[in-house]
Amino acid sequence: MPEQRLRIPRTPTTLRRKVVLAVVALVTASSVVIGVVSILALRDSLMSQLDTQVRSTAERAYGQVRGDGPAGILGLLNDQNETDARSILFGPATAEGTLALVNNNGTLTAGYLNDAGSISYPSTAQLTALATVPIDGSLTTVDLGPSLGEYRLLGAQHNSVVFIVGVPMSALNTTVSQLSLTVIIVAALGAAVVALIAAAFTRTAMRPLERVSAAAVRVSELELDRGSVDSFEPVSTEGVEPGSEVGRVVSAFNTMLDNVGTALVAREQSENKVRRFVADASHELRTPLASIRGYSELIRRMGGDTNPDVTHSLSRIESESIRMTALVEDLLLLARLDEGRELVRAEVDLNEIVVNVLADAHVTSPGHEWALGSPEEPVVVMGDQHRLHQVVTNLVANARTHTPTGTRVNVTLAVVGADAAHPVAEIVVADDGPGIPPERLDQLFERFVRGDESRARATGSTGLGLAIVRAIVQAHVGEVTVASTPGDTRFVVHLPMSDVAAAPATPPASPGV
C-alpha cells in the first residue's frame, strides 16, 4: 500500500502580505546591491592606499640603505652595501606591523615591528609562506597564519640580494568587516522600517476593500431566495479617492447592491401580491365549494328514480368538491404561514401526537406494516399542537400514499442531545418502499411537487403536503430533511425543545404559486 502523506492546507497569501513582501524584497535587494558595491569600492580604495604604503615603505628602506642610490626598487641594492631586516625596520617612519626579509648573499634576516615597537621574528611556517612571494617587484597578498594574518607584500632581487617588505592587511580587513556588518544592520533595520510603513500604508489603502469584503459576506449570509430582505447598507466611501482603482471597485459594488436591493424589493412585492391573491382566492372559494358539495350531497340523498348516470355524476361532483376544498384549505394555510402569522404556542407532547397519528394509520391503511418507537416519558416542545399534528400526519400520509401495500413504515421519536444546553426532538418517518428518484429530492418540499406523479395523481395527492410540513417546521424554528435510496426513505424532523421564541415564519420559495 503506497504511503500517504498528510497534506497540510496552505494558508492563502493576502494581497496586503504580497505587497508588503514585494516592497521589502525590493528594498532589501537594493540595499544589498548598494552595500556590496560600496564594500567593493571601499576595499579597492583601501587596497590602493595599502599598495602605496608598501611601495613607500620600500622606497624609504632603499633611501636608508643606499642614501644616494638610484630610485626604484631594482636599484635598491649593490655589491658594496650590507643590508639586513633590522636596518630596514628601524628606519624612519616605519609603521607598526611592517615586515621585512633580506637574503644578503645567503645571510637571511627577517622580522616585523610588534605592538611594543620592537622586532619580533617570524616562525618557520611564516618564513615558508614568505618564500612564495614572487621576486619581481609586483605586489601580492599572503596569509601568514593566525598570529599575523594577511600581508600585502612586495619582493625584489638585485644580484645576489633578495628583499621583501610588507604591510599588514588587518586594518583593511577590519574596516571592510565593520562596513559589511553596518550594511547588514542598516539593511535589516531599513527592511523592518519599510515593512512597517508598507504594512500601515497597505492597511489604510486596503481598508475600503475590507469593507467591501465584509459587506459581501453579510449579503452572502442572507436568505435572498425567501422572506423579506431589508435594504443593503452601502459600503462607506470614507478615505476613498473616487477615481482610483479601489474607488471604482467600491462604487461598482454599491451600484450592484442597489440594483440587487431593488430587484429583491420588486420580487418581494410580487410574492406578496401572489400570496394575497392565493389567500383571498382560497378564502373566497371556500363558500362556493361548500355550496357545491352541500347541494350534491342533498340531491344524492334525495334518492328517487334518479338516472344512474346522474347519480354517478353527482358522486363525482361531490368527491371532486371535497378534493378541491382540501386543496383550497392547503393553499390558504400556506398563504397564512407565508405571511408569518403567529402560531398558537403551548406545551405540546410529541409522544401523544405520534401515537394518535399511527393509530389512525393502522385504521386507514391496514395493508401497510406500521411500527412505532418512542420513549416512555413525554417529549415536550413549545408549539402549535394542531400544526405539529399536521406535520406528522402529512409525513405518514406521504409514506402511505407513495409506497405499495405491505411496505413497513417506522415512526420513531427521540431526544437528541438530552445532556446538551439545547436538546432537540427528532421525529423520523422511514419506509422500505421503492424510494424517491434522486432528481426529485432537491425539489421535494416545493409546492405541487410529487415523488411519484402517477401514483400521487391516482391517490388524489395535491403536492402540497410536504410544502406544508416544511413551512410549519420552519415556523417552529426547526428543520426537516429527506434521504432516500431504494428500500430506505427517511424524513427527519428536528424541533427545539427549549423555550425558543419563534421567529416570524420564514416564507419558503413559491415559484409555483
From TrEMBL:
**The keyword Membrane is assigned to this record:** yes
Question: Catalytic activity, per the record?
Answer: ATP + protein L-histidine = ADP + protein N-phospho-L-histidine
Entry's Gene3D superfamilies?
1.10.287.130, 6.10.340.10, Histidine kinase-like ATPase, C-terminal domain (3.30.565.10)
Spell out where the chain crosses the membrane: 20-42, 179-201
In this protein, which residues make up the domain named Histidine kinase?
280-499
Per its UniProt record, the required cofactor names are: a divalent metal cation
HAMP domain: residues covered: 203-265
Q: Which UniProt keywords apply?
A: Kinase, Membrane, Phosphoprotein, Transferase, Transmembrane, Transmembrane helix, Two-component regulatory system
Q: What is its EC number?
A: 2.7.13.3
Q: Which PROSITE patterns match?
A: HAMP, HIS_KIN
Gene Ontology molecular function, alphabetical? calcium ion binding; phosphorelay sensor kinase activity
Q: List localization entries.
A: Cell membrane
Assigned GO CC terms: plasma membrane
**Protein name (Swiss-Prot/TrEMBL):** histidine kinase
